[in-house]
Amino acid sequence: MLKKCMGDPSFIIPTEDIGIKDSLSYEDIPVQILDCQVRKLRTKEVASIKVLWRNQFVEEATWEAEEDMKKRYPHLFETAEVLDQGTNSLLSTF
């Protein structure tokens, strides 16, 4: 059963403060690369990476094409390259 509700104007938040687009959509931002793999097809190999997105759990991470992600989010791969170089330098000291 529905009840009549009197709205309180003090609880209304202006949409300009929130930053909602007219299409009511938002851009999801990748946070971290969790894993990478190369899938072999009949004629070519496709490199994929597992990406953790903002506001998602690790279980909800998605596999994306590495080439597309490098074009759209190059900053994710710069940190990965630095980590790889650090690992290689550690291995060369032993």
TrEMBL record:
SUPFAM superfamilies per record: Chromo domain-like (SSF54160)
Domain (Chromo) ranges: 31-78
PANTHER family: CHROMO DOMAIN-CONTAINING PROTEIN, RETROTRANSPOSON PROTEIN
Protein name in the entry: Chromo domain-containing protein
Species of origin: Solanum verrucosum
Lineage: Eukaryota, Viridiplantae, Streptophyta, Embryophyta, Tracheophyta
